[in-house]
């Protein structure tokens, strides 16, 4: 949980393995478009469920060697007649859910301290889940806004004269800023990669190639400010491609090849020359 949500680089190893496995599985299914669109949300549910199962079973292992001698059972509960492992899992599940049923309680000193600690971990799990959900969707919004903006620019058919001016420099600078934000999002919220952006212009995988095209055109402009902002945009795109390649695609190719692989991995054809 710490590595997935709070670590600065957010390298949640086990969580990433679960999400990547579901992504690859969905890509192999025939109904690819419909299934891939559900991978991100379902993967988050699977990861949270995995966290909960690990915590429940981990604390059950703590209780198991001391069951039933170190615990007090409510009269006529019937719990003491169950297997010791089942009683341990039941106690762990009730504790982490903070239900407080009271039909089984630790009687030994250190176990009476350990049981509330598990309840606190249950609160942490709930808080972490809510925080994770609230963090991921603004990330998706920023990515889709950039994708739609690039699609609109591509449809506008911007001429050389319109690009080679102060407005063009401001446009390239704004695009560079948005690309940097997306690059940071992929670094800090790697799970966002496994969310499908849809089949319209909101797919960055399909439209990012046009930003690459604008950066090349801007570097050939006459105005110095346009050339400068175009170089900044090109560098931002190169950094983004490096993050995508190192974390997800592993092509060891050029930025253009990485973006092509990104589009292919999300089932989209690139937009732009």
Polypeptide structure, described:
Residues 54-135 form the Potassium channel domain. Keywords: Ion channel, Ion transport, Membrane, Transmembrane, Transmembrane helix, Transport. This is Potassium channel family protein. With 273 residues, the protein is an all-alpha fold. It folds into two domains: 2-127, Helix Hairpins (Orthogonal Bundle), CATH 1.10.287; 137-265, no CATH class. The protein has ten helices and two strands; from the N terminus they run αααβαβαααααα. Strands 1-2 form a two-stranded antiparallel ribbon. Helix 3 (32-63) packs across helix 4 (84-96) and helix 5 (109-156) packs across helix 8 (204-218). The chain is elongated, with a radius of gyration of 26 Å. The two termini are 42 Å apart.
Quick recap:
This protein has 273 residues and is mainly α. The chain has helices spanning 2-6, 13-28, 32-63, 84-96, 109-156, 160-163, 166-188, 204-218, 224-249, 255-265, and strands at 71-73, 104-106. The protein has ten helices and two strands, in the order αααβαβαααααα.
Total number of domains: 2
Overall shape: it is elongated
For the largest sheet, list the strands in their spatial order.
Answer: 1-2
Task: Give the percentage of residues in beta strands.
Answer: under 5%
Number of H- or I-type helical stretches: 10
Q: What distance separates the N and C termini?
A: 42 Å
Rg over alpha carbons? 26 Å
- Unreliable segments (pLDDT under 50, ≥5 consecutive)? none
Series of H and E elements: HHHEHEHHHHHH
How is the biggest beta sheet arranged? 2 strands, antiparallel
Helix proportion range:
over 70%
What's the total number of strands?
Answer: 2
Determine the structural class based on helices, strands and strand pairing: mainly alpha
What's the rounded overall pLDDT mean?
Answer: 86
């Amino acid at each position: 949980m710490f590595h997935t949500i709070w670590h600065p680089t957010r390298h949640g190893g086990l969580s990433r393995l679960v999400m990547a496995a579901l992504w690859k599985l969905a890509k192999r299914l025939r109904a690819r478009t419909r299934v891939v669109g559900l991978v991100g949300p379902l993967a988050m549910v699977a990861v949270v469920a995995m966290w909960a199962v690990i915590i429940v079973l981990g604390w059950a292992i703590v209780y198991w060697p001391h069951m039933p001698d170190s615990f007090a059972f409510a009269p006529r509960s019937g719990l003491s007649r169950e297997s010791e492992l089942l009683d341990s899992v039941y106690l762990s599940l009730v504790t982490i859910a903070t239900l407080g049923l009271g039909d089984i309680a630790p009687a030994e000193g250190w176990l009476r301290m350990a049981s509330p600690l598990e309840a606190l971990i249950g609160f942490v799990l709930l808080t972490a889940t809510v925080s994770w959900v609230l963090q991921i969707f603004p990330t998706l919004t920023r990515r889709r806004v950039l994708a739609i903006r690039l699609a609109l620019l591509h449809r506008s058919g911007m001429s050389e004269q319109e690009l080679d001016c102060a407005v063009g420099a401001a446009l390239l600078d704004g695009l560079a800023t948005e690309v940097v934000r997306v690059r940071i999002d992929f670094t800090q919220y790697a799970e966002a990669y496994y969310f499908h952006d849809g089949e319209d212009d909101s797919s960055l995988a399909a439209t990012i190639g046009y930003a690459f095209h604008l950066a090349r055109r801007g570097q050939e402009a006459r105005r110095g400010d346009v050339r400068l902002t175009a170089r900044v945009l090109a560098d931002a795109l190169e950094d983004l491609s490096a993050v995508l390649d190192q974390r997800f695609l592993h092509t060891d190719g050029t930025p253009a090849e990485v973006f092509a692989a990104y589009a292919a991995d999300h089932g989209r054809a690139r937009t732009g020359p």
